[in-house]
Write a structure and sequence with these properties.
heterodimer, A: about 110 residues, mainly beta, 7-stranded mixed sheet, B: about 120 residues, 4-stranded antiparallel sheet, about 0% helix, globular
Amino acid sequence: DIQLTQSPSFLSASVGDRVTITCRASQGISNFLAWYQQKAGKAPKLLIYAASTLQSGVPSRFSGRGSGTEFTLTIGSLQPEDFATYYCQQLNTYPLTFGGGTKVEI
Amino acid sequence: QVQLVQSGAEVKKPGASVKVSCTTSGYTFSTHAIHWVRQAPGQGLEWMGRISGYNGNRNYEQSLQGRVTMTTDTSTSTAYMELRSLKSDDTAVYYCARAPLGPYINFDYWGQGTLVTVSS
């Protein structure tokens, strides 16, 4: 199975900060990677797919980069509604797997 | 608009089975697969498996093989996930999510989640 390692697992930040989360895959997955945001008690929400394509309706302050084994999610200017947990997911090979999550808190 | 609506919360005893439904609307069922993801309390996301809305092809997470069965009813655009021989660590919120068939999978719409509690 492909393992995804997210870092950091916890991030403390302020409104207006630029934030970057990293996701490393245990083997190459081309650009078959997605990012999700999850708030407490809610289903995850798709932010980015194909490593860098912004899902319709997602603010442009979110961006994704990477290919192969290293990927990043950047929030350009953190807004109050962005405080949540973020997950990466590889979609290259079954079983599909998720990273362990990064909780972004004030 | 696309909607995935799941069945309600369940409480089960160890060893029992649970069947969760995911009723879809707002899109053509056969153009997407339904994936199932679960989340234990305070934990991360775990992919369980998927079933194609086109031909019923399935892929299951190996650790659940033999205990999980995913099915669809194309007449009602509904997907089902049955988990048998329940254990306490199957206590989780279970989500269904749709993903387009084809090379670029992404889970663009999710159900609201179904809490399954396994307790004696």
